[in-house]
Write a structure and sequence with these properties.
heterodimer, A: mainly alpha, 20 helices, B: Alpha-Beta Plaits, 4-stranded antiparallel sheet, 3 helices
């Protein structure tokens, strides 16, 4: 991904290990996390000019521990006058990243808080970096993090690796949070949104760590594969002005082959060795698209089958719409339009803004250009995405 | 997702304001301060401001590379934007819940508009 400087690379990898070591030594996640954040900021200031220390992790643990002791002193000085323990060298354990990830995605937190806390405590990003990436003020992110930590404290959650049963119950929230981070970043990569691209790289990095720790969790594998297979198209997905390029019109020579190969390998192994789940199926669908050298070579029958499977595992408006798109590719736009009318009778789908977009495409392919134009314009008014609106408007203009 | 909560000033809102006692007007202003603080504390506030009177508005245009500044053309307009809250929340449901807390929601009402983002669906 190549977006991190060497110092950032070291800091972000070390962050959860350092935090794990400090929390284990002092017991308090909240204050320890603040102390580690300050140590990371100090390192980000000093290392680029003074050089990275021989043992960066030990340096960070030492600085964070001192800071943690100072924080404790401020809090407790009046109550307890006894001497504080000498400089400790807390140990680093292999489970720390996973334990932290599970803590940051605690069910008591809202998804928005889970994202902010995960990026800081596990990802090692500063509050300022997270704020830039999420396009909100730093103080807003700071509040989200302190609220999240308070919620964790109130819920009585501790820095301990849960049992396997508990972990199975907690992992869906972790996968969802990582996917949310990925999607925050997996957007148009032009101009002001440049920083957001880093978030998809960060999500891939964290999911890769999780996959290395839990290689037999099929849905973690599916999630990683889905991210890689989606990220692979990023160079072809937008024009320089930020406008969307539809999948069928993307220059496929720009796709990242290495990411596609890795994603395909991971999802193939997961589908073979583990119980099937929605992330694996989504990854498989993305893989089928990515493996077609030209849009016309897309294996639509396989995609339709996979959407039917996905519908049985995790139904939703987008699954229904994509199934209809695949159906229309095979049996023609009129069959697709009939299926769309039937599906739109369901109130859950009737109000979905992409129904109009899909209808517009199918009408255009069926040759009903006047109605297609109307539907494109209607769809462009309903979307909340600027690139999508531009795209839909340009399709409408083309039919004038 | 970001949403803008817009507070308009118009004849109805001015009439509602005139009907209030001093204490009620003070409470109304305090309500706005409290809401800003509450949004900040909840980690949803991006920005909130009140706008100066349209009498102070200036109109800027560029013609042939020349900047032309004139008084706002909207001085006699009966309705104008008086203030806003820009919030970042999970979904529309949350945005509407915050909008209902704006003091003006209890007098004339407030408008809630989603902000376009840069996300995109691959067609």
């Amino acid at each position: 991904m190549g977006v991190l400087t060497p110092v950032e690379e070291v800091l972000r990898t070390a962050a959860p290990q350092v935090l794990g070591a400090v929390v284990r030594r002092y017991g308090d996640f909240d204050a320890s996390e603040d102390a580690v954040q300050e140590a990371l900021l100090a390192a980000a200031r000093q290392w680029p000019s003074e050089g990275v220390p021989d043992n960066p992790r030990a340096w960070l643990i030492r600085v964070a521990s001192r800071r943690r002791i100072e924080l404790a002193r401020n809090e407790e000085a009046r109550r307890r006058r006894e001497a504080l323990p000498p400089d400790p060298v807390p140990d680093v354990r292999g489970d720390d990243e996973l334990t932290l990830l599970l803590l940051c995605c605690h069910p008591a937190l809202t998804p928005i808080s889970q994202v902010a806390l995960t990026l800081r405590a596990v990802g090692g990003l500063s509050t300022a970096e997270i704020a830039r990436a999420l396009l909100v003020p730093e103080s807003t992110v700071g509040q989200r993090i302190s609220r999240a930590k308070r919620k964790i404290r109130e819920a009585g959650a501790r820095f301990v690796l849960p049992s396997d049963t508990e972990m199975t119950a907690l992992l869906p929230a972790v996968r969802q949070t990582l996917y949310l981070i990925f999607n925050e970043g997996s957007t148009a990569s032009s101009g002001s949104s440049l920083h957001r691209v880093e978030l998809s790289a960060e999500a891939i990095r964290l999911t890769r760590q999780l996959h290395a720790r839990l290689p037999h969790d099929g849905e973690v594998s599916g999630l990683l594969a889905l991210m890689l297979l989606t990220d692979a198209r990023r160079p072809a997905r937008t024009r320089p002005d930020g406008a969307l390029v539809p999948l069928a019109e993307q220059d496929r020579t720009l796709w990242n082959r290495a990411e596609i190969d890795e994603g395909v390998r991971i999802v193939t192994a997961a589908l073979r060795d583990t119980a099937v789940g929605p992330f694996q199926v989504q990854a498989a669908i993305t893989a089928v698209h990515d493996e077609a050298e030209r849009a016309e070579e897309t294996d639509w029958p396989q995609i339709l089958q996979l959407y039917r499977l996905l519908h049985s595992l995790a139904p939703g408006p987008m699954v229904t719409l994509n199934r209809i798109v695949a159906l229309a590719e095979m049996d023609g736009p009129l069959v697709g339009l009939r299926a769309l009318d039937e599906a739109a009778a369901d109130p859950a789908l009737a109000d979905h803004h992409r129904v109009a977009a899909v209808r517009a495409h199918l009408l255009e392919r069926a040759g009903d250009l006047a109605r297609a134009r109307e539907e494109y314009l209607w769809a462009s008014r309903l979307t909340l995405s600027l690139p999508e609106r531009r795209y839909l408007e340009s399709r409408a203009t083309r039919l004038r | 997702m970001k949403y803008l909560i817009l507070i308009q000033s118009n004849e109805r809102s001015l009439a509602a304001w005139d009907k209030m006692t001093d204490d009620e007007q003070m409470e109304f202003g305090r309500g706005h301060l409290q809401l800003s603080a509450e949004m900040g504390e909840a980690g949803v506030l991006v920005a909130s401001e009140g706008l100066a009177d349209p009498a102070l508005a200036r109109w800027v245009a560029v013609r042939d590379g020349e900047r032309i500044v004139s008084d706002g053309p909207f001085a006699e307009v009966k309705e104008h934007l008086a203030g806003f809250y820009l919030i970042d929340v999970a979904d529309e449901k949350d945005a509407l819940a915050w909008a209902a807390k704006v003091p003006d929601a209890a007098t004339i009402g407030v408008e809630v508009r989603p902000i376009l983002d840069m996300s995109g669906w691959e067609f």
